[in-house]
Amino acid sequence: MAEPSWDEIFGGQPQRPSETPAAPEPVSEEFPTARLSDPYAVAAAQANAAQAQAARAAVTTSTDQPLSRRELREAEARANGGAAQPPAPPQRGRGRGRDQDPYALTRPKRRWGGLVALIVVVALVLGGGAVAWFGFHDKVCKVLTFCQESIDYTGNGDGEKATVVIQSGDIGSDVAKELQRAGVTKTYEAAYRILLKTNQSFEPGSYTLQKQMSAAAALAALKDPKNRVVNSAVIREGITAEQAYKQLSVATGRPVSEFEAAAKDYQALGVPADFPSIEGFLFPATYSFDPGTTAQAALQKLVTTMQQHLQADGVPAGDDLKVLTMASIVQREAGSVADMGKVSRVFQNRLDKGMLLQSDATVSYGTGRTDHVTTTGTERSDKSNPYNTYANPGLPIGPIALPGDDAIKAAMNPTPGPWLYFVAVNLKTGETVFSTTQAEHDAAVKQWQAWCRQSAENMAYCQ
After folding, report:
1. Which residues make Cβ contacts (< 8 Å) with residue 91, sequence separation at least 6?
2. Quick check: 359 and 392 in contact, CB under 8 A?
3. By CB distance 3.0 to 4.6 Å, which of 126, 168, 313, 338 could disulfide with 246?
4. SS3 state at 103
5. Cα–Cα distance between 399 and 310 in angstroms, integer?
6. What's the rounded Cα separation, in Å, for the pair 176 and 410?
7. 101-to-86, 94, 110, 218 alpha-carbon distances in Å
8. What's the mean pLDDT in 322-331?
9. How many CB atoms lie within 10 A of CB 276?
10. What share of the chain is helix, strand, coil (3-state, %, to 5)?
11. What domains can you pick out in the chain, each with its CATH number?
């Protein structure tokens, strides 16, 4: 056998003779998938087409809307007895709605899961709202008026009695301050607003009201004679002897001039001879007097009561003047009972260091302007005023007011501390700042001045 040539090796496969392809099997023209050789194929195709057409007509008639491709496919599947091909599985990792999910019609509806989710969301919203409310309540209420705190009480009181004292010559602002001080009204402003509109006046005297009354109810109660205490006088701590005479006059029916005359002979009532007057030796309390009580007898009752308290408080014999003078300054200067010991310490520290006391309260007493808390430069430089502790060293010559037990005890036992200055930065609440240096005190004074300028109500306290 001869070896193949190079042309035969690299020339590819030899060509085969061409073969004649087999003829295609005949199919139905109406149904191309039905072979004519199968006697049942054409009949089956015709039956399936008729069922599909009937299903399509039924669905279209019931909805009067064109069907989607999926709905047509499902209808054909029902017509074919479920022979339709299932749809392709859904793509993962992409969001889809019900119309995009081929299994949406067959998946059970998770109604309980949705409800639980809704409840959780609502709880989180409400919980977050509660946290925001309690965490930011004060800031929110500065903007929203419905939750701002009212300046007034409602109703006719809580049943607890309170005594209100109206001094002779008191004006509307004085009455408003007294109502707040006694715990009757919630704020000074609540009563003062009404008084500005109505311009009411009141009879001097003591009145029994209730605590936590509305301003309108409190002012109406002051006009009712039934609430006025007859033959009784409430002598408050911190008032002067002259102011006490007016209360005693109302309670006894005696004119003020009789008390002034009786007070001139104060030594006859038991006041020590080294006192310059009866000032400071009348003990503040509530007193009742029998009808016909004289001015002298009334004053004697107050002096005797003071003697009893000085003894009970342990004041050494012969120290009455010094103790009552310091106590009266503490009574007038302290913003609260809690601060009395610290105020007493400031004055005692200044005395020990040879510093001037520089008390505006003493200067005011010497000028006769006891209704003011501030003094002028001229008043502070007047050395002729024996009560001027800006110009004169040491304690003034005598008491400047009627001190109570708390002030007397504070004068006897000052709170330990290094303070040399103090100033009330809120005259409404009595908040006081105590300092050890002049720089600290100057800053506190600016704080007080800023408080005074905040409102007309504040300014009324600062004048």
Report:
1. none
2. no
3. 168
4. coil
5. 15
6. 29
7. 13, 11, 15, 75
8. 98
9. 15
10. 50, 5, 45
11. 139-229 (3.30.1490.480), 332-462 (no CATH)
Q: Could you give the count of Cα atoms lying within 13 Å of 125 in the half-sphere of its Cβ? A: 6
Separation of alpha carbons 243 and 87, rounded Å: 103
116 vs 203: which has the higher pLDDT: 203
Please write the tens of the pLDDT for every residue from 271-312: 999 999 999 999 999 999 987 899 999 999 999 999 999 999
Nearest-CA neighbor of 285 among 401, 178, 184, 404?
A: 404
Predicted TM-score (pTM) of this structure: 0.60
The token duo for 156 is 């006719």
How many of the other CB atoms lie within 10 Å of CB of 390?
Answer: 19
* Amino acid symbol at 65: Q
Tell me which H or E stretch contains 435.
Answer: strand 431-435
Q: Which of 423, 424, 426, 422 is nearest to 458 (CA)?
A: 426
d(C-alpha 234, C-alpha 299), whole Å: 14
Tokens standing for residue 54: 């009937």
Copy the structure tokens of residue 447.
Answer: 């704080």
DSSP state of 286: E
| Digit-coded pLDDT (tens) for 45-96 | 676 666 666 556 555 544 445 555 565 566 555 555 544 454 444 444 444 4
Cα radius of gyration rounded to whole Å, the chain: 50
How far apart CA 326 and CA 58 sit, in angstroms, is 110
Over the stretch 131-179, which tens digit does the pLDDT of each residue have? 444 455 555 555 555 556 799 999 999 999 999 988 878 899 999 999 9
Site of tokens 């402003």 = 189
Q: What is the dihedral of CA 97, 103, 109, 113, to 10 degrees?
A: -70
Q: What is the DSSP letter of 232?
A: E
Identify any residues that bridge with 431 across adjacent strands, giving them in sequence order: 426
